Amino acid sequence: MYQESDYKNISKEVRSVEVGEEDEITYSEEALSVEAEIYEDLRSCIQSRKVCSYQHDFFERMFKIYELGGWPCGWEGKLTEGRFIAYFPLHEDAEE
Q1: Does the residue 95 lie in any domain?
Q2: Which of 9, 38, 67, 75 falls 20 to 30 Å from 27 in CA-CA distance?
Q3: pTM of the predicted model as reported, rounded to 2 decimal places
């Protein structure tokens, strides 16, 4: 994968990426109970973009779910061939 010296440099770059603190992010009422998990997921997405640009499919798919207002809460299948299981809350204005 990475040469050891490259890995050390990349690891240093990833740790230096500035990500807003949890209290700087506005969460929906449904997301408040899992805000720490969401924060770590988004932090991983940011770090992945720093290292891999937009080429890491797993983190880009995870980010897309968050971008659409969902929460990736599981995985189905093999890691490289599977898919996320995501929760999307109903909006108050949506018909049931």
Answers
A1: no
A2: 75
A3: 0.65
